[in-house]
């Protein structure tokens, strides 16, 4: 009850407050016509202050009036700055002029930044940050990020998992342009399905996300913005190769057909055909694979309508296991093999009704349909899974009286059809979930911002679900920002897909009971302190989040003979503390230093059927990240280096078990801590980039990542307990080529 009273109190309090804002749009004139084209990402700021914002994807901006200045500056690379003296007006239309006098201009920005205006604790990873490493796909895009860590889920399949706030990526709602995408069966390899060169930016938000995007965000929300059809880069080519034999090519094309229509084609092909067994355990350190991935998207932009739609298609084939395994040996029982084929197809559309005379108002409809079909085998065991999804979200936004009080409301629908078969275990369900939501925002000159929302969803299998969430932001000073959040999350787990890597073992899968949905509450607070001393600038960020579970899927692997799935009985929580400092001591030199502490525990049933609260397995308690980047004038040369220290983590008992010795949850061990070093150097030319880099430069490898590798059909075989790098030092090189409009 306190949670709802608190939200109601802030809602009533904010309704009594009042302030004024300036809204408007920023455009450029289309050459050869009188038509205007919106400019995305133009800077809008009050002269002589730090109060700033940027235009959105349709060129609109919204900024509070300033008591320190009446000169509003609008700027964008390649255009002349425009300064507008503001009087009583509050709705502007700005047309920037091309600056033909510019020769070679290098615009630098922070590689990542905290969204100053958002009440959510959100870090924006820019294309500059993505270029610090090869970033061949989304799973490799967080190497310099302190909040998200990435590791291999096992030592055979090549699937990767991310962690944030002490919990794995299934508790993070991962969206592609605000469409829930990496979820369900796609959680196994989904991070590998988004090529890095397709990514324009990544928003990493901590805590429960907005109710507008659904109910599945429990510890955070990641939104990936893709390259747009009207991108200024009409051609972008990237090639990559590493010393293990992995090669890939990416080609992005963007064409402006006329003043209203544009189209884009994003393509990707990658492969690894070289068999690598550096630790000599008889198993491939990485699976052989081939992936083809393509997106064709279209965009229509007029004064009153914006529409985007497109199709995606992905084909991937993986083969791993023992070094001598070939596909035709499947099921022989003599050589252990792993294989996975994934076919995935999607259609998406986004339609928005715009109101040029009322830029605060809008009506949008998002629709996505996808088919995910996967067929896998682990030795003698087959696992096939199919997921059909239909998603729709109708969103209306407007104001209440004035632009200090705004709201979003709408209707959503999610249809999921799952059909999985592992050995003799069949998991099939059909989820039909209509829902409605309302989210209110109060904004007082961006000094105090409150977002309070709730949604109700009518789940055909699990009944009515109510999901409230609230976010607060308060600028204590111009340099100090406080944030707080609280919210509920709800999701239906997919045990086999989420613990896919643990199927590469001799463990017997057991479902002790019907699995209920996971329900959690997340609470958090953060402080951001910015500073500037002479030419040196930077910020310090400290946050704490706690996630409490009302119910959680327990994947009990304390007995090496079994994977037991059951519902939580007792406590489960995750505490996360992080301190991060970003410093620019001189021009073109950037440092990042971060420390993260996790306290994550879950109640497990022991052999006496008693509940025992234990540290969650495979979660590192401590992590330190240090990143340094330096660029010569005009970015001719760029140098980046990253050091990660990963602390110890708990590993369940992995020894011999028989009728005389059964583990009692007290015989688990701890993995050693280890360092990981990455570095990259980039040479830039007007249209070309050439980069050379390395990962795991210290050549650290987990010893014996596969238990019982010499007898993979025996009872002690387990490849699902990888806690460190499986492969050693990796050196890579690549070329980027682009043509700008």
From TrEMBL:
Signal peptide (from-to): 1-19
Pfam families assigned to the protein according to its UniProt record, in alphabetical order: CarbopepD_reg_2, Plug, TonB_dep_Rec_b-barrel
Domain TonB-dependent receptor plug: 118-220
Topology in the lipid bilayer: Multi-pass membrane protein
Keywords linked to the UniProt accession: Cell outer membrane, Membrane, Receptor, Signal, TonB box, Transmembrane, Transmembrane beta strand, Transport
Residue ranges annotated for the TonB-dependent receptor-like beta-barrel domain, each copy included: 341-697
InterPro entries from the UniProt entry: Beta-barrel_TonB (IPR000531), Beta-barrel_TonB_sf (IPR036942), CarboxyPept-like_regulatory (IPR008969), Plug_dom (IPR012910), Plug_dom_sf (IPR037066), TonB-dep_rcpt-like (IPR039426)
UniProt subcellular location: Cell outer membrane
Gene3D superfamilies: TonB-dependent receptor, beta-barrel domain, TonB-dependent receptor, plug domain
UniProt record similarity statement: Belongs to the TonB-dependent receptor family.
Protein name in the entry: TonB-dependent receptor
Phylogenetic lineage: Bacteria, Pseudomonadati, Bacteroidota, Cytophagia, Cytophagales
């Amino acid at each position: 009850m306190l949670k709802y009273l608190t939200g109601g109190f802030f809602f009533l309090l904010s309704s009594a407050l009042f302030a004024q804002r300036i809204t408007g749009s920023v455009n450029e004139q289309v050459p050869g016509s009188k038509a205007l084209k919106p400019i995305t990402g133009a800077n809008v700021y009050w002269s002589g202050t730090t109060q700033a914002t940027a235009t959105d994807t349709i060129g609109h901006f919204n900024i509070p009036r300033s008591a320190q200045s009446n000169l509003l500056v609008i700027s964008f690379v390649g255009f002349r700055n425009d300064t507008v003296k503001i009087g009583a007006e509050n709705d502007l239309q700005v047309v920037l002029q091309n600056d033909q006098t510019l020769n070679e201009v290098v615009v630098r920005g922070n590689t990542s930044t905290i969204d100053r205006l958002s009440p959510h604790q959100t870090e924006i990873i820019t294309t500059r940050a993505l270029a610090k490493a090869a970033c061949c796909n989304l799973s490799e895009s967080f190497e310099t990020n302190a909040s998200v860590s990435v590791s291999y889920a096992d030592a055979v399949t090549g699937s990767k998992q991310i962690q944030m706030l002490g919990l794995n990526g299934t508790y993070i709602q991962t969206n592609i342009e605000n469409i829930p995408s990496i979820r369900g069966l796609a959680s196994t390899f989904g991070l590998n399905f988004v090529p890095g060169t397709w990514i324009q930016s990544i928003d990493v938000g901590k805590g429960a996300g907005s109710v507008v995007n659904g109910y599945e965000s429990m510890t955070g929300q990641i939104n990936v913005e893709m390259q747009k059809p009207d991108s200024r880069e009409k051609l972008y080519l990237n090639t990559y190769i590493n010393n293990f034999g992995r090669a890939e090519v990416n080609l992005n094309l963007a064409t402006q057909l006329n003043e209203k229509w544009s189209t884009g084609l994003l393509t990707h092909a990658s492969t690894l055909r070289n068999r690598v067994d550096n630790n000599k355990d008889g198993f491939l350190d990485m699976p052989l694979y081939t992936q083809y991935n393509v997106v064709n998207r279209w965009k229509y932009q007029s004064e009153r309508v914006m529409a985007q739609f497109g199709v995606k298609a992905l084909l991937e084939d993986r083969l791993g296991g023992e070094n001598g395994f070939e596909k035709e040996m499947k099921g022989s029982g003599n050589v252990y093999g792993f294989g996975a084929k994934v076919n995935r197809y999607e259609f998406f559309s986004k339609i928005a009704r715009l109101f040029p005379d009322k830029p605060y108002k809008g009506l949008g409809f998002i629709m996505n349909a996808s088919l995910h079909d996967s067929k896998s085998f682990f030795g003698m065991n087959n696992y096939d899974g199919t997921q059909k999804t239909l998603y729709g979200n109708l969103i209306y936004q407007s104001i209440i009286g004035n632009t200090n009080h705004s709201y979003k409301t709408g209707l959503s629908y999610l249809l999921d059809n799952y059909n999985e078969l592992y050995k003799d275990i069949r998991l099939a369900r059909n989820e039909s979930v209509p829902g409605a939501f309302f989210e209110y925002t109060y904004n007082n000159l961006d000094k105090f911002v409150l977002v309070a929302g709730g949604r109700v969803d009518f789940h055909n299998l699990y009944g009515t679900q109510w999901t409230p969430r609230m976010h607060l932001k308060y600028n204590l000073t111009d340099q100090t920002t406080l944030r707080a959040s609280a919210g509920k999350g709800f999701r239906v787990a997919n045990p086999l897909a989420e613990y896919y890597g643990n199927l590469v073992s001799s463990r017997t899968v057991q479902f002790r009971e019907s699995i209920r949905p996971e329900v959690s509450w997340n609470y958090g607070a953060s402080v951001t302190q910015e500073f500037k001393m002479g030419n040196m600038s930077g910020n310090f960020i400290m946050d704490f989040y706690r996630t409490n579970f009302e119910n959680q899927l327990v994947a009990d692997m304390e007995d090496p003979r079994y994977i037991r799935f059951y519902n939580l009985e007792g406590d489960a929580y995750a505490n996360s503390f992080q301190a991060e400092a970003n410093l620019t001591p001189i021009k073109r030199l950037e440092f990042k230093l971060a420390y993260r502490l996790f306290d994550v525990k879950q109640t497990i049933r022991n052999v006496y059927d008693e509940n025992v609260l234990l540290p969650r397995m495979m979660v590192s308690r401590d992590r330190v990240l240090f990143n340094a980047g330096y660029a010569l004038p005009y970015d001719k040369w760029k140098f980046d280096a990253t050091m990660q220290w990963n602390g110890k983590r708990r590993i369940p008992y992995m020894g011999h078990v028989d009728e005389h010795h059964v583990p009692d949850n007290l015989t688990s061990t701890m993995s050693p801590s280890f360092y990981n070093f990455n570095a990259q150097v980039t040479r830039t030319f007007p249209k070309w980039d050439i980069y050379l880099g390395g990962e795991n430069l210290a050549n650290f490898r987990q010893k014996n990542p596969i238990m019982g590798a010499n007898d993979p059909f025996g009872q002690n075989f387990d490849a699902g307990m990888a806690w460190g790098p499986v492969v050693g030092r990796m050196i890579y090189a690549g070329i980027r080529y682009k043509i700008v409009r």
